[in-house]
Predict the 3D structure of the following.
Amino acid sequence: MFTLHNKFTVVAKRIIKAAIEKAEVREPPVLVGIHIRRTDYKSHLTGYKAMIVSKTYFDRAKEHFRQKYKDNRQSPLFLVVSDDKVSSTFSNGTRH
């Protein structure tokens, strides 16, 4: 069974806590993780005749979660993880 080393868990929890504090929300937000894999994935997809999704795909996915939780006291907080700094700007570091 795969288990993360404690040092990675501690760092991840610290990053998530800082993101929540920066968002300045009253209720705990619904955390939505977005993993943008670009640098090695494009060549991987070629063998499957598939392509990397666009920014529009991510925008629609984010809007889905905004709508899903619009009547909830909690709102989504998007946490973007990427191996590509350009792609991670899809979030602009903002809470939507």
Remarks:
- The mean pLDDT is 82.
- The first helix runs from residue 6 to 23.
- The first strand starts at residue 30 and ends at 36.
